[in-house]
Each structure stands twice: as C-alpha cells, then as structure tokens.
Amino acid sequence: MTDVDLAQARFNMVEQQVRTWEVLNERVLDVIETLPREDFVPAAYRNLAYADVQIPIAHGQVMMEPKVEGRLLQCLDPQPGERALEIGTGTGYLAACLARLAGQVTSVDLYPDFAELAGEHLASQGLRNVHLETGDAARGWEDGRRYDVIAVTGSLPELHEGFHRSLTIGGRLAVIVGTPPIMEALLITRIDDEQWATESLFDTSLPPLVGAPRQQRFEL
C-alpha cells in the first residue's frame, strides 16, 4: 500500500468509522486525521493501520480499533495545559494523540520493550511532552501527582478504585470493564474529594490489563 493509499485510508477511516461512531470533536478529529497511525503499527500489519479491527502487538496485547480510540479521546476531552496519564503504552499511538491534545503526558507500561519502541515512535513525530515509565500499574499508579485525564488501555475484569484518587477534582478516567464477550466503557469524573460520577459510554471488548485484580470466587 503506497503513501497515497494510506492517506486515503486515513481519510476513509475518519469519515466512515470515527465520525459515524459519534466522534465529532474537531480537536480529536484533527489529531486522528493528521497523525500517521501506520507509523505506530507493527510492520506486518501496516496495511491494516486504518481498518476497523484490533491490531495485534507483542505480549498478547492489541491496538484498539480507531473508532474506540476516537470515542475515548472525545469523552476524556484533554485540554491544553492539562496533565494526562495513560496506563498501557503499547506502541505509543494513544500517547501521541494525548500529547497533541493535552499539556504533559505520563505513559506507563509493564513491558520495557514497549516503552522503548513507543519512545522511538514519539520522537519520530517530534513529540517531547510524553514521559515514559515502566512498571506495574494494574492496581493504580502512585507517583505523587494528580491527573486531569487518565486513560486505561487494557480492560479491567472488575472495576477497582486504584485510579480514582489519582484524578484532580474534575478529572476524567476512561476505563473498559468486564469480561468477554461484552465489556462496558466507562467515564468516571471526580466531583470532589470523596465523590465520583460514572457514565456508561458504549460496549466493546479488549484484552485485560496484565495483573488486573479480580475478586476470588469460591464454589461450594
């Protein structure tokens, strides 16, 4: 597939997938329209960069469908000057989107090779406002900071509150909760020190965040 084909595929993705999934925020659309997603996709799947599919990456993980990424970005609505946290860096594509929409981005992944690869991808796009960390954030990420936006890119079998207190007042958390075949994307907004509002966004399915906690169930 030539560069001209990829440009057309990107246009078609925005018009036929992303917009039709009620992503109408012009800032989000502009980022998706101009950021070359093919540069973040494994070489074997480059021709699928703009297809309506999850793209496999290493360690049994995936890149989300473009329409899901667009909806999550729209619901989080990162603003210039805001601080964003991403749990699950992967190839760095969503971190790059956040970097163009927010002020500063911290992105955490369990796997060092993901962090290294994402760093290369982000540098190739001239994005220098993303701080990459390696660590286990399945139960939360405590670094002494509070974030206006938190995006969790692996699903949680059961919702826990490990990320809730890392939000600023008014901060937004996007997370996908449940087990296959149908999971629920949620937007959680911190109202004050002890209150959070939860909004159901849409149904989807996504591999679980590695190490995400779940309650033990005992059968008699």
UniProtKB/TrEMBL annotation:
> Does Transport show up as a keyword for this record?
no
Identify the domain of life. Bacteria
Q: Name one GO molecular function term.
A: protein-L-isoaspartate (D-aspartate) O-methyltransferase activity
One of the GO BP terms on file: methylation
**Gene Ontology CC: one annotated term:** cytoplasm
Query: What keywords does the record list, in alphabetical order?
Result: Methyltransferase, Transferase
Transferase recorded as keyword: yes
Q: Which Pfam families match?
A: PCMT
- Family (UniProt): Belongs to the methyltransferase superfamily. L-isoaspartyl/D-aspartyl protein methyltransferase family.
What's the protein called, per UniProt? Protein-L-isoaspartate O-methyltransferase
